[in-house]
Design goal:
Helix content: 25-40%
Shape: globular
Number of helices: 6
Mean pLDDT: 91
Radius of gyration: 15 Å
Structural class: alpha/beta
Distance between the termini: 14 Å
Number of strands: 6
Strand content: 15-25%
């Protein structure tokens, strides 16, 4: 049985970037799916790993990132997804969760073989992360109702690319099984 980890991408967001207002409606729609995945992963004793941008603040660590996000324009989108004391945290600087981060090492230490991706932004960070996970031979699951987008057409294309080109399982958050290999 493959060990599954929930990877929560860039949800700790102060929404102060150029595309923020285009992202907010989709982030609001994805929030119930993300919170359901968090609840189910925790209940299934699956590792929950937040991988988040550092907003260009090279001195930041996860506590500062959480504080910055909570102090942003849309606290209501951040509060429900704040990491609990058991969550693991990796800071990233670019789009992929793997690019120059210790994530691959951490996943190896945890003996994880299957990644469930949720978060922001479908057509950017989630897409590139899914590709990098695929080329590292992880099974990839993307909960389509738990990822937020800036451009709906690009997001639809990205989900299709993940399913077709990366053999990702694209499903709803309520179809994702933690602790056992299920349909999602």
């Amino acid at each position: 049985m493959a060990r599954t980890a929930l990877i929560v991408v860039d949800v700790l967001n102060p929404y102060a970037h150029e595309d923020a207002e285009a992202l907010v409606p989709s982030a609001r729609e994805a929030l119930p799916g993300i919170t359901a995945l968090l609840r189910n992963a925790r209940a299934g004793d699956a590792p929950v790993i937040y991988v988040n941008d550092n907003f260009g603040e090279w001195r930041s660590q996860h506590g500062e990132i959480v504080t910055t996000a909570l102090g942003g324009r849309h606290r209501d989108l951040v509060e429900p997804v704040v990491p609990d004391e058991d969550a693991l945290f990796v800071v990233k600087a670019r789009h992929s969760i793997f690019f120059e981060t210790p994530l691959a090492y951490l996943l190896g230490q945890l003996e994880v073989e299957r990644l469930v991706l949720c978060g922001q932004v479908t057509e950017q960070c989630v897409l590139y992360s899914a590709l990098d996970a695929h080329i590292r031979h992880f099974d990839v699951v993307v909960a389509a109702d738990a990822v937020a987008h800036i451009d709906p057409d690009l997001a639809a294309a990205a989900l299709r690319m993940m399913r077709v080109n990366m053999s990702a399982t694209v499903c709803r958050a309520d179809e994702v099984a933690f602790g056992a290999r299920g349909p999602g």
